[in-house]
Amino acid sequence: MENLEKFEKNIGYTFKNKDYLVEALSHSSYANEKKKSRTSNERLEFLGDSVLSIVVSKYLFEHLTNVAEGELTKLRASLVCEKSLHIFAMQIHLGDFIMLGKGEEITGGRERPSILADAFEAVIAAIFLDGGFEPVTKYILGFMPDDIQHQKKSAFSDFKTILQEVVQKNPEEKVEYVLAGEEGPDHNKSFIVEVFLNSNVIGKGKGRSKKEAEQMAAKEALELMGYEPQ
């Protein structure tokens, strides 16, 4: 309980229902060890991803009134990608509070970007469920850069968004990402994703998370199509 209170001070929010926070901080490796006595943060991560997207979208819509839709999409992607969420998570020392299984603990899970990014999204969902949109919006906006125009110029390359924009030039084309395989033990797993254009594989990527693997698959597809993403 003392550890939870310390984390609450770090994020500036006190939970009415501590169970939300405990679930948000419970990695699947820890939940698996505890069997049915603990639920992992994966479902909260799913919800948090959507809450994060809508809060950031509203923020960009209101603050960048002269920026076109395509640029807003790229900027949002740069703010909610794993790279950015990892940085945000480190700012609140999230890795110190995540509950991990023994294997994940031994192999450095507290510093793994994918684990930290996922837990950051889970915490967002926990705040949303516990307090609603007002506190979660305040929490998320605390991580937004002061100079949003500078962020726009230095936005992280989101290869999935770029690929989607390329493909949209032909409305009949459809892009789909499919998990093709997994490698390694649960505490050190890699994911392999294939990106399809209609029924044809146009790229394959590997990463420590499904999101990273999808980005790498999109990057390869762009390169094979003659584009040179940075």
Low-confidence stretches: none
The chain-level structural class is mainly alpha
Could you spell the SSE succession in H and E letters?
A: HHHHHHHHHHHEEEH
Helix content: 55-70%
Spatial strand sequence of the major β-sheet? 1-2-3
Number of helices: 12
Instruction: Name the overall outline.
Output: globular
The fraction of residues in strands falls at: 5-15%
Mean pLDDT: 87
N-to-C terminal Cα separation, in Å?
45 Å
Total beta strands: 3
How many whole angstroms does the radius of gyration measure?
A: 19 Å
Biggest sheet: strands, sense, closure?
3 strands, antiparallel
Quaternary form: single chain
What does this structure look like?
This protein has 230 residues and is mostly helical. The chain has helices spanning 2-11, 18-24, 28-34, 42-63, 69-80, 82-91, 102-106, 113-131, 133-141, 148-153, 159-167, 210-224; strands at 175-183, 190-197, 200-207. It has a three-stranded antiparallel beta sheet with strand order 1-2-3. A hairpin with a 6-residue loop joins β1 (175-183) and β2 (190-197).
Question: In terms of topology, how is this protein built?
Answer:
Elements: H1 2-11, H2 18-24, H3 28-34, H4 42-63, H5 69-80, H6 82-91, H7 102-106, H8 113-131, H9 133-141, H10 148-153, H11 159-167, E1 175-183, E2 190-197, E3 200-207, H12 210-224
Antiparallel strand pairs: 1-2, 2-3
Helix pairs in contact: 2-8, 4-5, 4-8, 4-9, 6-8, 8-9, 11-12
